[in-house]
Amino acid sequence: MAEKQTECNPFSYLVDSFYASLPEKTADDIGTFKKDVLRGIRDSITTWIDEEIELTDRHLENARRMRERHRQDEAEDTPPSPA
C-alpha cells in the first residue's frame, strides 16, 4: 500500500525523487551522512551558545565585584561628616 503524501511541496517531492533514484544503500549512506553533519553543526552551535551564556554570567559577576569595589573605595574616600 502506498503511503499518503501529506505535503504538496514540490521541493520535497524532488528530494524524495532524488533519494528514490539512488540505490537504497547509497541513499541510506547519504542520508546518514547528512544527519551526522547536521547533528555536528547543532552540537557546535549548542556548545558555542553554552560558552556565550557562561561568559555572560562571568561578565555579570565581574561587574558586580567592580561595583562593590567602587562603593567600598567611595566609602573609604568620603570623610566622616561632622556631627
Topology:
Layout: H1 10-21, H2 24-77
What does this structure look like?
With 83 residues, the chain is mainly α. It has a domain at 23-76. It has 2 helices and no strands. It has helices spanning 10-21, 24-77. The chain is rod-shaped and about 95 Å long. The model has no long low-confidence stretch (mean pLDDT 89).
The total count of strands amounts to: 0
Largest sheet: none
- Per DSSP, the total helix count is 2
Global geometry: rod-shaped
What's the order of the H and E elements?
A: HH
Give the averaged pLDDT, no decimals: 89
Spans where pLDDT lies below 50 across 5 or more residues: none
From the helix content, strand content and strand pairing, which structural class follows?
mainly alpha
How big is the Rg?
Answer: 30 Å
Amount of helix? over 70%
Strand content: under 5%
**Distance N to C terminus:** 96 Å
Supply the key terms.
83 residues; 80% helix; 2 helices; mainly alpha
Structure in a nutshell:
The chain has a domain at 23-76. It has two helices and no strands.
